[in-house]
Amino acid sequence: EALKSQINPHFLFNSFNTLITIIEENPKVAVEYVEHLSDFYRSIIVYRERDFISLQEEMELVRSFSFLLQKRYEAGFRLVSHLHGQTGQVMPLALQMLVENAVKHNVISASKPLRVEIFAENDGYVTVRNNIQKKIKPEVSTHFGLQSLINRYKLLGERPVIVEDNVAFFTVKVPI
Question: What DSSP character marks residue 171?
Answer without folding.
Answer: E
